[in-house]
Design a protein that fits this description.
148 residues; 7-stranded mixed β-sheet; 3 helices; alpha+beta; single chain
């Protein structure tokens, strides 16, 4: 299993379709926008040559929380339905964190809406990867954060 940084300027249609079918799981990326903004990072999760999911790191631009020079990103991840329950999300996050720890200080936040059907799985997964609960966001959301 590997993750690859997608160098294209557009999201894959399979990714956009997945986001559209799971609106309670994603915060800022909407299925209508096909262009990957240059400040974001879009990774494809691959296993044995199959495209099994994606990771999107969305640059956080919020002067009240982070300075513009901070490497602060929100994590959004999706594993396609026919590949669920095979630990791909866990492996992909491990690979991502391992890759990013070689860069300058990196802050990653994961915001989980209370309405997300994978709330418990995501909470457990993030904690197992070293994320800690952060209480600075509005109600109806859980925020987990890691600094690399």
């Amino acid at each position: 299993m590997c993750i690859t940084l997608n160098q294209k300027e557009e999201f894959d249609l399979k990714t956009l379709d997945f986001i559209k079918k799971n609106p309670t799981s994603f915060n800022y990326i909407k299925s209508e926008g096909i262009i990957v903004p240059p400040e974001h990072r879009y990774y494809q999760v691959l296993h044995d040559g199959s495209f099994v999911g994606f990771i999107i790191l969305i640059k956080i631009i919020d002067e009240l929380i982070y300075d513009k020079k901070d490497n602060a990103y929100e994590l959004e991840i999706g594993i396609f339905d026919n590949f669920k329950d095979k630990s791909y999300a866990s492996k992909a996050i491990s690979k991502l964190l391992n890759e990013l720890k070689h860069e300058n200080t990196f802050i990653i936040e994961a915001i989980i809406k209370n309405s997300n059907s994978n709330l418990i799985k995501m909470k457990t997964l993030l904690i197992s990867k070293g994320f800690t609960h952060n209480d600075i966001y509005p109600k109806n959301q859980l925020v987990y954060r890691i600094v690399l």
